[in-house]
Queue: 2 jobs
Job 1
Amino acid sequence: MKAKEIREKTGVERDRLLLEFRKKERELRFAVSGRETRNHRALRATRKDIARLLTIAREEEVME
């Protein structure tokens, strides 16, 4: 997900997205460690999405 798309969402939608991404990260982490999947890139992309969400939330918090 791109930063522009994240900025267009409301705070409640961002919180919901953050919960979804954290759940997805957890599932991917267990799948990769259990050798159920070899898609390491999905885990990396999910972590980056979480970081983007948190960064944008922090930017808005500082701007207020």
Note: The chain has one domain: 3-63.
Job 2
Amino acid sequence: MDVSLLLRVVGVGVIVAVAAQILGKTGRDEQATLAVVAGIIVVFLLLVREIGDLFSTIRATFGL
């Protein structure tokens, strides 16, 4: 795992947290929830390739 991936995930988390706080304070709770869900989806999309590499390594290790 690369450090840049970790920094990207943290960056997305900080941006989503700030956006959710701002939207929550202005009374737009539904949009705050949607921002959090969108942030989770973005992080999962960032991690898909790493998960694929993990499964490939497991297959190669155990000869599946």
Note: Residues 3-62 form one domain.
